[in-house]
Specification:
- This protein is α/β, with parallel strands linked by helices.
- The protein folds into 5 domains: 70 residues, no CATH class; 99 residues; 181 residues, Heat Shock Protein 90 (2-Layer Sandwich), CATH 3.30.565.10; 132 residues, OB fold (Dihydrolipoamide Acetyltransferase, E2P), CATH 2.40.50.180; 120 residues, Rossmann fold, CATH 3.40.50.2300.
- The protein is 46% helix and 22% strand.
- The strands form 5 sheets. The protein has a 6-stranded mixed β-sheet with strand order 10-14-15-13-12-11. A 5-stranded mixed β-sheet has the order 2-4-5-7-6.
- The N and C termini lie far apart (120 Å).
- 33% of the residues are buried.
């Protein structure tokens, strides 16, 4: 009965369906006739019918789905997105970076297990060899010794199993962690255009204020880089383009007299270079004046006239990046209120990058900012030098060089080593860090060939400990200005080591040497108003002082106690600790009682001045007197040296 019904259904399907599906239905009808006869033929018929059922199901699905597609077209796939705060994304990225470091620790423990397994196997083999040499047969061994040998074999197997399991887990976690880091890195990537777009109105406004005609050319806006890097570069780029409009580009009539078009060209270009990205800021103005920079450096006390005279034009151009250097004859809001290019160099240094300047007299100036493409965790080279351990970013180390006594030569009193037929300055890492002498001329040493910003230097170290993943952590504002130190990193074994700044290790010694000869007086500026604090800081830095800003009296007192200072300039009305209490605290402190204190405030009543002087202040100024030079005059009186 069931077979007859199946054959009837098959004939109806064959009549309804056409093509391949109809043929399959007819074959099923034929197979139904073989069912019930038994034997091999029945088995073959069932197998054939099963195959045709599969074909029939596919054909029926196609036949059924086709009209539905014609009647109801598929809806387009909706693109879904979720808005996430950048701070949360950065927190997740930091956790993933730490996960990568943790995976490295697991890999290290896996290698330790491998080593222990091998040592255990060697110890077991030594024991068996000793028993064989003593000619002690198995049946003559004490029961405890036989049990110990069996236990050693078991431990060998367990160690091997744990080592393999640890390796598998670390490999799996490594794939996940690196995949997550790559994904988060991609999520943080934004086009450079987001920062370049704000330059156009800034240049247009600056040009109209100073009477210049400027055409801004922006290229490379589609280059993608880490949002954090781009955010840090917005202010330096704005400073450079404004500086170019105000100082670099000439007035239209001056350009016309020099045979140039009245409309100047200011170009900002972004170029990717591997895992780095370069920002070029170029103008076709008059170019830097090395002679003017030499004169300003001498005037500010950074070097003597003789030292300035020995600088090449390229070395003199780098003076522009020294703190307190500005060739502007007057302080204006447009060109940074007198702040020099040291703010640009400092911002780039915090990113682990380099900044260079080149120029052609009468043809323009080019600033080159090279920064990492991303600020996520990277790899570092761990080494020992000067009695300690430190890390260098791996991308700054070109190679490891074995330096023998015959490889070192001297040119102009400076040691050089030849690397691939190129002479490279050579010294020891300990000497650069100020913690030891130069390398011995007779010993064979290991040196790191470091490159940064087009400069190279070979630095001898005591020992190279290998490559390590690292996540650089900031050391806070107190240590932010320490030269050659980029931050700190925690190794996979828990040790905290310093991360060195490659740009500072290969920096030009000729420019830095003069600056090092004279220590600048240190002044703390305390004010809860950012604009007032910045204005006082700028005036003092231009005058050659090293300024440490503080947002209130409590922070100023802690800064003076921890770092020391030569003078304090403070507002009176501030949160946490006001200027009067700060003055009293300083005058009562054993080591700070002789530090002069200047109170700068908007309170001009006689009783306010009396309160300030009663607290122990050495000077009292009203804020409106700052712009007239009263602050600098009073500071110089209190610090005549």
């Amino acid at each position: 009965m069931h077979a007859e019904r199946a054959r009837t259904l098959g004939r109806r399907l064959a009549a309804t369906l056409g093509g391949v599906a109809g043929d399959a239905a007819r074959r099923i009808v034929g197979a139904m006739g073989e069912i019930g006869r038994g034997g091999v033929e029945e088995a073959r018929a069932i197998a054939s019918a099963a195959g045709d059922v599969v074909v029939l199901r596919g054909g029926a699905c196609v036949a059924t789905a086709e009209p539905l597609r014609r009647e109801r077209p598929a809806a387009p796939v909706e693109e879904r997105s979720v808005r996430v705060e950048s701070t949360r994304l950065e927190a997740v990225a930091a956790d993933v970076d730490q996960m990568v470091v943790g995976v490295s620790g697991r890999e290290r423990r896996g290698r330790d297990l491998d080593r222990m397994e091998q040592e255990l196997r060697d110890a077991s083999q030594l024991l068996r060899t000793g028993l064989a040499e003593a000619r002690i047969r198995d049946e003559d061994r004490p029961r405890a010794l036989s049990d110990a040998l069996d236990r050693l074999r078991t431990l060998e197997a367990e160690f091997g199993s744990h080592a393999r399991e640890t390796r598998r887990e670390s490999e799996r976690e490594g794939l996940i962690a690196h995949g997550l880091r790559d994904l988060l890195q991609d999520l943080r990537m934004v086009p450079a255009q987001t920062a370049l777009a704000s330059l156009r109105p800034a240049v247009r406004d600056a040009a109209s204020k100073v009477g210049r005609k400027v055409r801004l050319v922006l290229t490379g806006g589609d280059v993608r880089l880490d949002r954090r890097v781009l955010d840090e570069l917005k202010a330096p780029l704005l400073h450079l383009v404004r500086n170019g409009v105000d100082h670099g580009i000439e007035l239209p009539e001056v350009r016309s007299a020099a045979g140039k078009p009245e409309e100047a060209t200011l170009e900002v270009r972004v170029e990717p270079r591997g895992d780095r990205v370069v920002f070029l800021v170029r103008d076709d103005g008059a170019g830097l004046s090395p002679d003017r920079l030499r004169a300003v450096a001498v005037q500010r006390g950074l070097m003597t006239a003789a030292e300035a005279g020995r600088l090449t034009d390229a070395e003199a151009a780098r003076i522009a990046f020294q703190p307190g250097i500005s060739t502007s004859p007057e302080i204006t809001a447009l060109s940074g209120r007198g702040v020099g290019l040291d703010v640009v160099a400092e911002a780039v240094r915090r990113l682990g990058g380099t900044v260079e300047v080149s120029f052609e007299r009468g043809r323009g100036t080019t600033f080159t900012l090279e920064v990492p493409l991303t600020m996520s965790g990277t790899a570092g080279l761990l080494f020992r030098a000067a009695g300690g351990t430190a890390l260098l970013p791996l991308d700054a180390v070109e190679r490891v060089v074995i330096v023998r006594s015959g490889d070192v030569g001297t040119i102009g009193g400076h040691a050089f080593v030849t690397v691939e037929e190129v002479q490279v300055p050579y010294t020891s890492m300990a000497q650069v860090l100020g913690a030891g002498a130069g390398p011995s001329a007779t010993d064979t040493t290991v040196a790191l060939l470091i490159s940064s910003g087009g400069r190279r230097r070979a630095l001898a170290v005591d020992e190279i400990l290998g490559e390590h993943p690292m996540v650089v952590a900031s050391l806070g504002r107190r240590l932010a200005t320490v030269r050659r130190l980029a931050g700190a990193a925690v190794l996979d074994d828990g040790r905290v080591v310093s991360v060195l700044q490659p740009a500072e290790l290969v920096g030009s010694p000729s420019v830095q040497g003069g600056a090092k000869a004279r220590a600048r007086p240190r002044v703390i500026v305390a004010d809860d108003s950012l604009s007032t604090r910045a204005a006082a800081k700028t005036l003092l830095e231009i005058a050659g002082f090293a300024v440490m800003p503080a947002a209130d009296g409590q922070e100023a007192f802690e800064l003076a106690r921890e770092s020391g200072c030569d003078l304090v300039v403070s507002d009176v009305q501030m949160p946490r600790m006001d200027g009067l209490e700060l003055t009293r605290r300083l005058k009562q402190h054993p080591s700070l009682s002789r530090v002069p204190v200047i109170l700068v405030t908007s309170l001009d009543a006689p009783e306010d001045r009396a309160a300030g002087l009663k607290a122990g202040a050495d000077g009292y100024l009203v804020k409106r007197e700052i712009a007239r030079g009263a602050l600098l005059s009073l500071v110089r009186k209190l610090l005549p040296e």
